[in-house]
Specification:
Length: 374
């Protein structure tokens, strides 16, 4: 059994822990912005392929005291990097966290890179190049107080990049957060789902992927672990084949999205086609004022604009009031959720939330508000 660590957005640790347990993870422990767990290599591949709320899956190498740049360099250089990386392979180093001596992430990442390439020069007379976008090996350094942990990143690029979404609207919701919102809203594939402000379609797409039991990682070109010396291609093909066989051709209930902008709805349709769920989602170009409930019960989730400047916020007050009126008048029997980064605007909905769930999006303090509509 290997020890792994999945990174998540702050506030989503409990949801991620539940997801990992369902995927077969052992010894699951919630931490800040992540979840530690144990499993075999098959689980590592499965978690990368199926993880809906996870950013990255790290394989810890070592943890050590770290109170200076010199100490960091020496500890990293003492590791057997030839087991993970040849001079022909490219690398990248990500750094999170800081302490008094190492308070700049770029500088700390540079110490790790220098330690590795200096070791390579001494051993082989040549060194790996840095490739920040598409490296053969991505390394993660995390500094917390006077300790550092060093890990290999098995995911490569962040798992929120599903691979199906070429078309992105303005200020899109991360797919990982959309999946978490569905979980928090207790979405079930048997329940009709609607996003009346769907933009480029992130929420309906995530709902359709869940309803059709499609592994979100199936659309990605590659994962970081595929470049590792111990990569098992036969096992990986087996894990992918299992995921392909688990797909359902239809969704049991209505999934819909609407938006007033025809251009952005074209993007949503394009994304749905790329994800193989265009037949499962009904997109409509319509004003929120014309929206009607497609059934007598269901789940509505929307992510209305927050307004960054004072003038925008004033203009949006009426829009949030309109949302509340539409919920009350046309969606009796439904449960509605509003995800917003502006608590003052949220009050304009004019309904008492049954739940207020604190979340973070792009560093913003946000809330998911639940409204039971009788």
């Amino acid at each position: 059994m290997e020890r792994y660590f999945a990174t998540v957005a702050p506030g989503l640790e409990a949801i991620a822990a539940e997801e990992l347990t369902e995927l077969g993870a052992q010894s699951v422990q919630r931490k800040f912005s992540g979840v530690a767990f144990e499993g075999d290599r098959r689980l590592l591949y499965r978690v990368n392929l199926w993880g809906r709320t996870l950013f990255r899956v790290l394989v810890p190498l070592t943890e050590f005291p770290c109170t200076s740049a010199k100490q960091l360099y020496q500890e990293v250089r003492s590791l057997p990097w030839e087991a993970y990386l040849s001079p022909e392979d490219s690398l990248a180093v990500d750094c999170t966290g800081k302490n008094r001596a190492l308070n700049h992430s770029h500088f700390s990442a540079l110490q790790v890179k220098n330690a590795i390439v200096d070791q390579q020069r001494q051993q082989f007379g040549c060194r790996s190049n840095v490739d920040l976008d598409n490296p053969d090996l991505r390394i993660n350094l995390h500094i917390h107080r006077d300790r550092a942990s060093l890990s290999l990143d098995s995911s490569g690029s962040s798992l929120h990049r599903r691979g199906y979404r070429a078309a992105v609207g303005t200020a899109p919701l991360k797919e990982t957060l959309a999946a978490a919102l569905l979980k928090l809203a207790r979405y079930s594939p048997e329940l009709p789902f609607l996003d009346p402000l769907c933009g480029s379609g992130t929420l309906p797409l995530e709902a359709a992927l869940q309803a059709a039991n499609i592994a979100p990682g199936l659309f990605r070109d590659r994962f970081g672990f595929e470049n590792w010396p111990d990569f098992d291609p036969a096992l990986w093909q087996e894990v992918k084949a299992e995921a392909q066989a688990a797909r359902r051709g239809t969704c049991p209930a209505y999934i819909g999205g609407s938006d007033i902008d025809p251009g952005i709805l074209d993007q949503a349709q394009h994304n749905a086609t790329a994800a193989g769920v265009s037949q499962q989602i009904e997109f409509h170009c319509q004003d929120i004022r014309d929206i009607e409930a497609p059934s007598d019960r269901g789940l509505l989730i929307c992510n209305p604009p927050y307004g960054e400047r004072l003038g925008e916020v004033q203009e949006l007050r009426g829009f949030y009031r309109l949302l509340g009126d539409i919920f009350k008048q046309r969606f009796k029997g439904w449960t509605a959720y509003v995800f917003t980064g502006n608590r003052e605007l949220a009050k304009e909905v004019g309904l008492r939330p049954a739940r207020r769930i604190p979340l973070s999006s792009g560093g913003l303090d946000c809330r998911l508000l639940e409204f039971e509509l009788y």
